[in-house]
Amino acid sequence: MLAWTIYISFLGALAEMLLPKRSVRAARGIALLATVAAFAITIEEFVRQQSGQIVTIARVPWVPSLGLEYHLAADGISLTLLLLTGIVAVAGILFSWNVEHRAKEFFAFYLVLIGGVYGVFLSFDLLLLFIFYEIAIIPKYFLIAIWGSTRREYAAMKLALYSFVGSAMVLIGLIAAYVLSGSKTMDLVWLAQFPFPVHFQMWAFPLVFVGFGILAGLWPFHTWAPTGHVAAPTGASMLLAGVVMKLGAYGCLRVAMTLFPRGLDAWGFHVLGFGSWREVFALLALIGILYGAMVALVQKDFKFVIGYSSVSHMGFVLLGLMTLQQIGLDGAVLQMFSHAVLAGLLFAIVGRMVYDRTHTRDLSMLETMHLSKLIPFAAVMFVVAGMASIGLPGFSGFVAELQILIGAWHAFPRFAILAGVGIVIGIAYTWRAMQKAFFGVGEAREKEDTPPAPALPPISLPERIGALLLIGASIAIGLYPQLLLRVIIPAFHSPLFDGLLRGAGR
Length: 506
Description:
This protein is mostly helical. The protein has one domain (3-445, 458-501). The protein is 73% helix and 5% strand. The chain has helices at 3-18, 24-48, 76-94, 103-122, 126-147, 152-181, 188-192, 198-215, 224-231, 234-259, 277-297, 302-323, 326-358, 363-366, 371-374, 376-389, 396-411, 413-439, 443-446, 461-479, 482-491, 498-501; strands at 55-63, 68-74, 266-271, 274-276. Helix 8 (198-215) packs antiparallel against helix 10 (234-259), helix 9 (224-231) crosses helix 12 and helix 12 (302-323) packs antiparallel against helix 18 (413-439).
């Protein structure tokens, strides 16, 4: 059934394009129906599959002469990321309910992107994974370039260029692995168990890891992310932060780290104080945590605050991967889920609830409006989402970041301490943004002769449902993390991760 998440998304996109012009209501309905149907399938399969081990969904010959197969499968990691994709996809449609300009094209690109994401998370043939990966990249450009704002053409081109450079690096690594194995197969599980020479893994691992890491916001290749988030329309921002960046982190884990685990080994000598790629990428992840947090602290544009916050939180994901500890890896996957739903909600609040009503994202201007009185629902949601984002107990972010910090403490004690500093800075920029945007009283409002602020349109029902869906997911995992961990933990005990957990980087 999980394969139908892909098919339904693509069929929904096709149906959108067959609609007559100006069929806005029909376009919305088809998009919502397609995303809800795919989401329902992910829930049903998530509840049904208990083991977290690899389950084959479809496996048929594709290009027999090259050993390529249409191989779809899922384990606990895939199930977790499929579930979050369904949640964010449905919420994104609800927050895009106001789109009227070329609505059918907007929702068609949206569904193609979602279909590509589902395909990446389900592909166990590496060429198939790469094809779906590219399918997910192309719609991003059009969603930003056509429906975006704030230097949208620049942001769309920058995102596309960064993405395609990363894709080229990944493709080189995959082709090299295919040729060197001499097996005429791109099966992920088989190649993960193939003993690639150490000298090959030493250059193939960083090539593929950085290729995927670009999309994950790895510092210093992160600059596309804040720019793209700010320029994208609300629904696209939610997808970029919620699921597209997770494609990069997923590729780092699923492909780079499983195919080339010896690339994480010590080199036998030190370069600039580093003895392994593991140390290098752990440091880059830490820099991303601190840099993203500090830049977010001084931003004047509300959406840029959330954009750089995403860079910081994705740094935690990458740091968790580099711990090579069971608890750190579990935390990294859990952080992917947590950041997806919370970043999606924060971008929805800033882009749809605030910007579309006030027509400004300037914190100094928002400070004079006292939005907590004008749109109290948005204020409450931002406070709750902000507290969840900084890792307050009771929300998903707490469990995820705690596991990552424990894993980092075992692997890189100093890095763990500095990552904790990043959390403190996160509290500061979240509090600052919250105070200025919703509870600030500027000088203009303090004057008695200042006329009262005009009433703003109320928060619509689709917006309320979308917000409650996202925050509800974070609370559910925060209160009962075992809901996801029951499938995540067993996934790391499959043959796919044997090479990684049996000594790589140790």
